[in-house]
Predict the 3D structure of the following.
Amino acid sequence: MVIDLHAHTAFSDGTQSPSELVSEASMEGIDVVGITDHDTTAGWAPAEEAARVYGLGLVRGMEISCRHEGISVHLLSYLHDPYDTGLASVVEETRRSRLDRTHLIIDRLAEDYPIDMDAVLAVAGEDATIGRPHIADALVAAGLVETRSEAFASILSSHGKYHVTLPTIDPITAIRLIAEAGGVSVFAHPRAAMRGLVVSDSAMADFIAAGLDGLEVDHRDNPPNEREIMRRLAHDHDLIVTGSSDYHGTGKPNRLGEHSTSEHMLAKLLDRAAGRPGGVEFIQG
Ligand code: AMP
Ligand code: ZN
Ligand code: FE
Ligand code: FE
């Protein structure tokens, strides 16, 4: 069984529709895929339909943008109730903040580059959660950089003069809201130091005390020695361990199934979700 629980579609910063993602996963020999767009569940319905057509297992999820003591933290929420008002309202607020923040970044960029909001919206999917990847794509379309990665390494760097941080919720609040919505929380790429600062061990302990359910240990952005530290931490606290690709279509080099989750850990995740009222089911395909 190949289980890949973290992938993006054009409802955030991936490049495929949910049905294209599910179809490709099926062709690539993936058995269970997780759809985890940033701050939205808009892709769930088409993904479910496609999973039934292709006979693929589907875990419906979302990657929530959080910030803890100034450090960006991504929390994966799996199988929560998308209509739960607690979680849905904070995510809606984050989506609004993302638009405001994109306007601010564009204002700064426009002083030096020929780019505006329309150019960004033109490269984003309808209803998509807007983020820096779309600004990157607009810079590529304008011929100012070659690739998304080049844009992140230069103009859009979080250390650069055009950067604006995204105001959003603390993961400790998000962990509670996910559980109250019947979902399961997994800390995405917890040691992705190449993206920016990572949280301290004591912050990690606070997340675990707040009810964090799992750690995304096997992810290309976690250095190999850190993965073993995370695996031990997960073992010591009876957390779920996942491994995933964080696939973004052609938006990133990550390949579907490049890291995967064990059947045992998927069962543990489904078990935790089943113990919480209100969430959605695993789709068997
Ligand atoms: P934002 O949430 O708007 O600040 O944008 C961050 C998102 O951009 C992350 O979720 C990544 O998926 C994506 N990203 C970060 N670094 C890169 C990169 N080097 N190339 C392509 N996408 C990236
Ligand atoms: Zn992304
Ligand atoms: Fe992420
Ligand atoms: Fe992601």
In short: The chain is about 40% helix and 15% strand. The two ends are 14 Å apart (CA to CA). The pocket of adenosine monophosphate (ligand 1) is lined by residues 13, 38, 65, 131-133, 148-149, 152, 166, 251-252 (CB under 6 Å). The CA atoms of residues 137 and 143 lie 10 Å apart.
